[in-house]
TrEMBL record:
Presence of the UniProt keyword Oxidoreductase in the record: yes
Domain of life of the organism encoding this protein: Eukaryota
Natural source organism: Penicillium subrubescens
Domain NmrA-like positions: 6-239
Protein name: Isoflavone reductase-like protein
Keyword Glycosyltransferase applies: no
PANTHER family: NMRA-LIKE DOMAIN-CONTAINING PROTEIN-RELATED, NMRA-LIKE FAMILY PROTEIN
InterPro entries: NAD(P)-bd_dom_sf (IPR036291), NmrA-like (IPR008030), NmrA/Isoflavone_reductase-like (IPR051609), PCBER-like (IPR045312)
Keyword vocabulary terms for this entry: NADP, Oxidoreductase
An annotated Gene Ontology molecular function: oxidoreductase activity
Length: 308
């Protein structure tokens, strides 16, 4: 199982994913290091070695990666381009596996979502990793669908959900299927990827907790809360165009959520993994606990928003 990968270093370890991933790696028996920026004062529970380096400092990254079997990037979506230096350093340091920061939609084919800049950048990073295979560096790109808690809790009108105000925007018909994962499912998929090194070598891995639609989420919200939500209708293609225009204007605060929402709910299948997710869930031994049922998740969100 984990004999090939023992020593693991997490880049961006102080972020939302990294801080939860590190304890899970320790619990699974890995020897864990955390790489953070020099200005970061993050601390970690457990026997974790903290390395500090700027993500563009090649020599410092090589030194940090020496003796590591795997590098896991948990950088934010919009910092994906910074991973290239880390990939170069990992290859020189003889790292066996690099897991780039994917953890979202399917970036393996980006032509049909060319209006969105960040899937293209993530795809470029994977292509760069592919160019390093001859040097002995392997990779795994993990696609998880949307983070379901973040999707429902994020109070941005572009995302469609304003649960506290009991307002919902349904895009297109609302019946487009898309895949979502809980954060714990994302974390376990990363850990399991390291435990199945041969099965996950140089490939995209697709996992999910649930397949759902906007209409199904709305029906569940109304059933559990006992409240009717005010519904507004909108179109994902219009939203994508509006997002592109905002990005051109430098209005990233509006543009990025609009593009992300259009990708998730639109007809392009960016978050719809179909049978691939079932295959990989089985391969990696991933299961959904009763505590992580969609009803339980939505009930927790409603409580946080003081709706029930």
């Amino acid at each position: 199982m984990a004999s090939e990968v023992k020593n693991v270093i997490v880049i961006g370890a102080g972020g939302n994913v990294g801080t939860i991933l590190i304890p899970a790696l320790l619990d699974a028996g890995f020897t864990v290091s955390a790489l953070v920026r020099p200005s970061t004062n993050a601390t970690f529970v457990g026997n974790v070695t903290v390395q500090k380096a700027d993500y563009t400092d090649f020599n410092a990254l090589v030194a940090a990666f020496k003796g590591q079997d795997a590098v896991i990037s948990t950088m934010g979506t919009f910092s994906a381009h910074l991973q290239q230096t880390a990939i170069d350093a990992a290859a020189v340091a003889n790292v066996k596996r690099f897991i780039p920061s994917e953890y979202g939609g399917d970036t393996s084919h980006t032509d049909n979502v060319s209006f969105a800049p960040f899937p293209k950048e993530k795809r470029r990073i994977v292509e760069y990793l592919q160019s390093k295979e001859a040097e002995g560096l392997t990779w795994t790109a993990i696609c998880t669908g949307a983070f379901v808690n973040w999707l429902l809790e994020h109070e941005n009108a572009a995302m469609g959900w304003d649960i506290r105000a009991k307002k919902v925007t349904i895009f297109d018909t609302g019946d487009q299927t898309f895949d979502v994962s809980t954060l714990s499912h994302v974390i376990q998929s990363i850990v399991s990827t390291l435990q199945y090194p041969e099965e996950t070598k140089n490939t995209y891995v697709y996992v999910r907790s649930f397949t759902t639609t906007q209409n199904k989420l709305l029906a569940t919200l109304e059933r559990i809360s006992g409240r009717k939500f005010k519904v507004t209708r909108a179109n994902t293609k219009d939203l994508a165009e509006r997002g592109q225009e905002h990005l051109k204007q430098g209005d990233y605060e509006r543009g990025y959520p609009e593009i992300v929402t259009a990708l998730g709910y639109g007809p392009w299948g960016f978050l719809d993994f179909k049978e691939r997710a079932e295959k990989w869930n089985r391969t990696l031994g991933l299961k959904i606990s009763k505590e992580e049922s969609l009803d339980s998740i939505i009930e927790d969100v409603l409580k946080k928003k003081d709706v029930i």
